[in-house]
Amino acid sequence: MKHYFYFRLLFVLLVGLSTTALAQNKPFWNDIQKFKRQDSISMPPQKGIVFVGSSSFTMWKDLETVYKDYQAINRGFGGSTLKDANEYVNDIVLHYKPRQVVIYSGENDIASGATAEETFSRFTTFFNHIRKGLPKTEITYVSMKQSPSRAKFSPEVVKANGMIKAYTEKQKRAGFIDVNAKMLDSNGAPRPELFLNDMLHMKQAGYDIWIKEITPHLKKK
């Protein structure tokens, strides 16, 4: 009987170690653990506004300062896709019980080979995860930008933006912010002066446009 007990204990320990190892191999696992460590030191207040998405939010270093009066929580993790956002929706959104979720994600999905339709499907899955867990929360999508270094993906970006915009317009407590249109020149091409040398991520001038466009859509407490 004693041998059986030790066998069961060993089995449980091995399963636990195996599960942990698998979790650590998941994309962006370390990023999510970093957020959890931050929360353990200083938990953001509930009913804030969660900004979730990819590197355009990650590199927006003063986002929480800019939107301090809105109780902003920046949970962007660089390089992530809508598929990754769905994987971690409990950790990066539902956990905080926000009054509003602002999403910037999808650009990396398309750059990784997803079609506009696949990107749209991933968005609606994410939207419905949030809506199911937080029925009264406002969900706001920030349009994907067209980047000079990803010009070949522009048709899919524009198409996916249109599909997401049409979808959000039919939903309650949902919105769409078109930052992309403000970042194009008179010929409809991305303005290179708004971008860093990689022609993908933005300079402050790009974020200034975002602040101007996003702010009117944020819900005050």
From TrEMBL:
GO terms for molecular function: phosphatidylcholine lysophospholipase activity. Residues 69-209 form the SGNH hydrolase-type esterase domain. Residues 1-23 form the signal peptide. Coiled coil: none annotated. It comes from the Bacteria. Keywords: Signal. This is SGNH hydrolase-type esterase domain-containing protein.
